[in-house]
Amino acid sequence: MVEFNRSDFYPIKHELTSHKITEKISDFILKKNINDNFLIQDISVPNNLKSNSIFFLFSNQEIILDFKKKILFITDNENLIKSCENFILVDDLNSSYNLILDTIFYHDDSLDFYDEFNYINGSYISKFCFIDKDSKIGKNCLIGRGVKISKNCIIKNNVVIKNAIINESVTICDNTTIGTTGFGFNLLNPGSHNINPQLGIVYIDDFVHIGSNCSIDRAKIDITYIGKNTMIDNLVHIAHNVNIGNNVTIAAQTGIAGSTKIGNNVVTGGQVGIAGHIVIGDNVLIAAKSGVTKNIKEGSTVAGFPAIDIKEWKKNIIRLRKYGYKWNSKNITTQVSFFTNW
What we know:
Elements (H helix, E strand, L loop, with lengths): L5 H4 L8 H7 L4 E6 L7 E2 L9 E5 L13 E5 L10 E5 L2 H12 L12 E4 L2 E4 L3 E2 L4 E2 L4 E2 L4 E2 L4 E2 L4 E2 L2 E3 L4 E2 L4 E4 L20 E4 L4 E2 L4 E3 L5 E4 L4 E2 L4 E2 L4 E2 L4 E2 L4 E2 L4 E2 L4 E2 L4 E2 L4 E2 L4 E2 L4 E2 L8 E3 L4 E2 H13 L9 H10 L1
């Protein structure tokens, strides 16, 4: 578990107590029970419940309650708060989340976010970050507030790093962005003014190499994690809340959707697409151009769309050729029908 001080990256804008929060979101409240009036200082996640924090309890989350800690639970599912001591039941959890966190924290998707920079050797370096003296920063970079860069790192030209902790001996190549805003919003209420505040960070462990023109989004609340010795090629996008294990190799133009967990020693070919909220086990090989839409057990080799065991995928190709079908855009409709009726 990686710990970080949220206020290093997102300064407190307004201090709210548990009682003040009920006033702030009064329009959304269906029921409430606040036994303690305490200051909200942080946000909790399921595997790390913190004292004096707020926890937004979505329907798909499972937690072990710790009544020794002062936590305010907010949810839109009454069944989830029957055993909670301090809770607010709302009819719109998404809007409640946005309103509360936009009030408590400064973040870089709000107009009032602030940072201060020094212009050093051709790059803008926040006064509120730390860069080890043995690391090298290229030209035209921007290093934002709260960022920590450990020793022996190489940050090449035109790199943007915000809301991130970079461990030792990491290389980040030209034009890559780290810690940018995750794609958090409500499909029923889109628009830039309704973006969910993304108040987590990116944590990049030792000896990671990240290619050019990549984008790694910060987590919504906790961390987007890149494990030790991982190699990321050019033009790769890693969305918010993704957790990537150690010794992973990701080829160019791969896209990994949010909240996906990838195990150790995984290898993906080029142009792989990985859906969100799935788990890929250790020692998995994913062939180029595959579309991964469900969990993959450890030790598997998969290919195709949707990605299946590569032996079965090869058999399907042979069957298609046997019946006179070729894999090209002119007969894609025929092929889809063929697979559906097989």
